[in-house]
Design brief:
There is one protein chain. By secondary structure, this protein is mainly α. The protein has one domain (2-398). It has helices spanning 2-7, 13-41, 48-68, 74-96, 118-136, 144-163, 167-183, 188-212, 219-230, 240-252, 276-309, 313-337, 356-398, and strands at 98-100, 103-108, 115-117. Helix 5 (118-136) runs parallel beside helix 7 and helix 12 (313-337) crosses helix 13 (356-398). The protein is globular, with a radius of gyration of 23 Å.
């Protein structure tokens, strides 16, 4: 059974290696950063969170395996339905979702009790839909009406709905869409127009939050994070999390091999999620952190190779969009952990502790591998056809 599954694994083998490596690193870091929490909350069962996280990763790998067996062209058919469904989901989350840290980002699934971020679903839907529209509208891609109705409006709508409670995720999704538009050969003036419209939308949402929502809504949080980043006060409560991250990074030094020996995770809030990269550096040093950064950049390189070899615009655009979103999120997470960027509250894809977010990432990687599988099959078929043609020519010559 296992051998049969392994034989059916297709797609870019390097992407499989990267996903496996990041999953293994994730298990090590989540275990070391949740031991104290598990001991306190689970009556001494320090393996509780490790086992739960391992289960989520295992299911995620299974999702990747199943999805990568599906023809990626199928996702073009459901992209529009997913986008339409995203709007009521985001609205429901805004008004009736589960609130954590003054933000309403989660929907609780009845009976099973699991929660998921509707923004994760909307991200998949928008990237798939934008890729579909760009592949279908290449003939009228210079028509401002077509671009506005079928591309600009959905991007601004989805990103705007996400932004009310999740500015960083909305920004990452918007930037990803701009990358997809650029690769999809949309005119530079249209891209600039979309970016300008995005800035206007951000200004309006911030103004609305500041003047019409109680306690300024999330705008107050955004301003506080930027202020704390620009003018850090080491004794301020707002700077406490970053201060603990500094200490963790300093303990790691240039090189360290101390798996499971993190102590700063006992003081660093969200050491297993928003600040897991600081935990990584504490246990494996800056070289360990550089290695993980290399894995994400190598993943991006494999996406570029895939785009170059893909004969179909939809598959190439969808793969690069989904991959760029994960890599961009990873780079921003690392930038926050080392204080190059303001705190955003985003996790490190495939490494941070997570629930259904792991499954959404696994689904996205499955789609990328599905596109890669189709490219590989095309190359094999092309080589086989060429070989047959050569043999036919030889037979005719020696007829």
């Amino acid at each position: 059974m296992l051998g049969r599954i392994i034989n059916n694994i297709k797609g870019d083998k390097y992407v499989w290696y990267i996903v496996t490596a990041l999953s293994a690193i994730s298990l090590l870091l989540v275990y070391s950063s949740t031991r104290s929490l598990a001991y306190k909350n689970m009556h001494g069962n320090t393996e509780y969170y490790l086992l739960r996280h391992g289960f989520m990763l295992a299911v995620g790998l299974f999702i990747t395996y199943v999805v990568h067996q599906i023809d990626h062209r199928y996702f073009s058919r459901i992209a529009q339905m997913m986008l339409i469904l995203s709007v009521p989901l985001l609205l429901y989350t805004k008004f009736f979702g589960v609130r954590i840290n003054d933000a309403s980002r989660w929907i609780r699934i009845p009976v099973v009790g699991l929660t998921f971020q509707s923004s994760d679903f909307a991200k998949l839907a928008l990237i798939m839909y934008t890729s579909r529209m760009l592949s279908k509208k290449q003939g009228v891609i210079k028509d401002i009406k077509e671009v506005t109705i079928h591309i600009m409006a959905p991007i601004l709508l989805i990103c705007g709905l996400i932004m009310f409670d999740n500015f960083s995720s909305a920004g990452i999704l918007f930037a990803t869409c701009i990358v997809v538009l650029f690769i999809g050969r949309v005119s530079t003036k249209f891209i600039l127009a979309i970016m300008g419209s995005g800035l206007v939308m951000v200004s309006l949402i911030i103004a609305f939050s500041w003047f019409f929502i109680k306690d300024h809504g999330r705008a107050d949080v955004w301003l506080g994070r930027v202020t704390s980043w620009q003018n850090p006060d080491i004794n301020s409560d707002d700077f406490y999390q970053q201060k603990q991250a500094y200490i963790a990074i300093a303990k790691g030094g240039l090189f360290r091999l101390a798996p499971g020996k993190s102590t700063q995770c006992n003081f660093l809030p969200d050491a297993f999620s928003d600040f897991i990269y600081a935990t990584l550096i504490e246990e494996y040093g800056l070289l360990g952190g550089a290695f993980v950064l290399f894995l994400y950049l190598f993943f991006m390189w494999r996406l570029i190779v895939l785009v170059k070899n893909s004969p179909r615009a939809f598959g190439a655009l969808m793969a690069v969009g989904l991959g760029t979103s994960m890599v961009l999120q990873a780079v921003i997470h690392m930038g926050v952990n080392v204080h190059l960027l303001p705190n955003t509250g985003i996790t490190l894809p495939l490494i941070s502790w997570g629930g259904t977010s792991i499954w959404f990432n696994a689904f996205a990687i499955g789609i990328i591998l599905s596109v890669s599988r189709s490219v590989e099959e095309r190359i094999v078929t092309s080589k086989s056809t060429t070989k047959k043609d050569k043999l036919k020519v030889v037979e005719e010559i020696h007829g």
